Structure formats: structure tokens, C-alpha cells
Recover the amino acids of this structure.
């Protein structure tokens, strides 16, 4: 595992952090809690730049989860879904989720499809949560 990555998070409820089904790996939503914490709504409580950093940290946590359980070189990102805890009139969800996909591009040559979705709230009042699907070759 890459020593620059944070510790892979453990499940805090009745679920697992990833699930492999044949050659697909589904990750649970990873949130920016651990060494760094990002709480609140974007942009009124967390600015877009910090939202980007939070999203990037979610990617590091996701990659840490994957690296702990698989050879990262044998994985390819397929799909990313990011949930942004945002104010009602916020429209720059993609700018926040760019932090996640930009970080993925440091580890993987293939790009994934993605969706950035604004939501009313997230667990622990974090500003972003991201789940993914990867191909295991």
C-alpha cells in the first residue's frame, strides 16, 4: 500500500467498506473523516476549495481501502457517484467532485464515468460522500 495514503477506514455500522462481485468491486460511500475532517454545507460553511480537498481526501480513503485488499495495478475505476452536502442554490457540485476524480487520475490511467449530486444532508454533517465501482482485472 502507498505510504502516503491515510489508514483505510473501518465500517462503523452494519455494512462492509467494499464488496466484490465477480470482477466488479463496489465501495461503500467514503466520507472525509479521519486525519482530516470536513463538516458542513457547501458553500455557506465549507468553501468550494475545501470541498475539493474533502473530495480528494475521500479518494485517498477509497484508494486506501482498495490497496488494503487488492493489487491497485489490477483495478480500473468505472463509476463515481459523489453526494455534495450543499446549500439549496449551489450549482458547482462538479467542481467539488473534481477533487475525487483528479486524485484518482494520480493512481489510474483510465477515467471513470461520474455523477455529482447535491443533497440536503449527509452522515455526521460531512460536506461530501463518494461511492465507486471498480473493475478488477
Amino acid at each position: 500500500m502507498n505510504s502516503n495514503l491515510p489508514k483505510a477506514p473501518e465500517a462503523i455500522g452494519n455494512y462492509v467498506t467494499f464488496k466484490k462481485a465477480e470482477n466488479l468491486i463496489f465501495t461503500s460511500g467514503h466520507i472525509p473523516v479521519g486525519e482530516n475532517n470536513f463538516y458542513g454545507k457547501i458553500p455557506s460553511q465549507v468553501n468550494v476549495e475545501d470541498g475539493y480537498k474533502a473530495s480528494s481526501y475521500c479518494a485517498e480513503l477509497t484508494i486506501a481501502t482498495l490497496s488494503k485488499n487488492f493489487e491497485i495495478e489490477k483495478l480500473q475505476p468505472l463509476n463515481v457517484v459523489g453526494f455534495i452536502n450543499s446549500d439549496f442554490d449551489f450549482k458547482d457540485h462538479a467542481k467539488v467532485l473534481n477533487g475525487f476524480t483528479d486524485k484518482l487520475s494520480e493512481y489510474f490511467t483510465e477515467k471513470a464515468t461520474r455523477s455529482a449530486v447535491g443533497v440536503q444532508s449527509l452522515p455526521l454533517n460531512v460536506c461530501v460522500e463518494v461511492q465507486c465501482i471498480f473493475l478488477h482485472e
Summary: The chain has a mean pLDDT of 96.
